[in-house]
Automatic annotation (TrEMBL), chains A, B:
Pfam families: TetR_N (PF00440). Keywords: DNA-binding. One of its GO terms (molecular function) is DNA-binding transcription factor activity. The keyword Ribonucleoprotein does not apply. This is TetR/AcrR family transcriptional regulator.
Length: 204, 204
């Protein structure tokens, strides 16, 4: 029953936003009686805070599952970035976004959301370092991994105002090329990559 | 009076979020009678949609003013990125974020916010290209400028859950170094830059 309530809360956050998510709608959606729901979660904030935890577990599990399907070889960085880009453009991101924005002006919610968000952030960072095979002891590499995650967060936000998938792919493919070069792996791609640019700009 | 109402709406979006911004609070804050306010803006959405326009003008004006103060020379890229980073971490960004997220689940608001956001996005892109002196006819450069703007948007979002200025500066300084290299300007900085990394990674 708890799981049904959590899923219903996340679905409603995605479909109606934080303001449109009411305890009545959650109990209807979950098929749980008002009495039973109120016994477990007396207030909307109790429900939403529990859903935050549920949501971060789900985000971690989704990412780990996607990571299993990544290719190795020269296309790996691009595949890692596209995976991250898709993750931050998913409904789960929209639900998290609703909570972040609501928490910005709600101290009680912020107290629950901020530490969980830090935890998720650290886990996603660790996973990204591992998937990219990045060596953070090299100066600047840690910042570029962080930049990559802030980039996909920004792309996720842009995507909420309208489907942005083609633009996202172009940007992430170019970022992958730069990242491979910076991580000490050359990845010129005919027609779009560094090789062609070097021809045009011999001063480099 | 209109300007006072717009400013009050933006302030309340920053302080209390979209859900906490009511027409009553706006009229109190602006020192405008309920009657006069309702005459100009019969509903909350009328008020908020007008404030979106006001806000995008203000965002453009703030950026243009900051751009006037940028240095020339080797530190310019870093200064441009820090300026953009600060802009996307400002209260004006928080107000815009409230509108974006509310618009995600409110079709009437989305119809007003999406075209304005596209307009602002194009203007900021154009300004960034100009400030960086980037040549978008070179393959990949347009995507790197877009990535830069999605990066600062992501950093702005991260900043709403807690002040993130030191992390933001480290990330943007590193990105400035990479961007200068990609744009055909070398910018090694002792101790943190490409020069040191090249020593550690002779294969590059």
């Amino acid at each position: 029953m708890r799981s049904r309530l959590m899923e219903a809360t996340v679905e409603l956050l995605v479909e109606r936003g934080f303001g449109g998510t009411t305890t009545t709608l959650v109990s209807e959606r979950a098929g749980v009686s008002r009495g039973a729901q109120l016994h477990h979660f007396p207030t909307k904030n109790d429900l939403v805070v529990a859903a935050v935890t549920h949501l971060s577990d789900r985000r971690g599990a989704e990412l780990a599952a996607s990571a299993q399907r990544l290719p190795t070889g020269p296309d790996r960085t691009r595949a890692v970035l596209r995976m991250l880009g898709d993750h931050f453009a998913s409904p789960v991101f929209s639900a998290a976004l609703e909570l972040w924005v609501a928490a910005r002006t709600d101290p009680a919610l912020l107290a629950a959301v901020a530490p969980l968000e830090q935890h998720v952030g650290r886990e996603v960072h660790r996973l990204t370092v591992e998937l990219l095979g990045a060596d953070e002891s090299v100066p600047g590499v840690r910042e570029l991994v962080q930049a990559t995650l802030d980039l996909v967060r920004g792309l996720g936000l842009a995507n909420t105002l309208g489907d942005d998938a083609p633009r996202r792919s172009r940007i992430l493919d170019e970022w992958a090329r730069v990242l491979d070069a910076e991580l000490g792996r050359s990845a010129p791609r005919p027609g779009t990559g560094r090789a062609e640019r070097d021809e045009k700009e011999p001063s480099r």
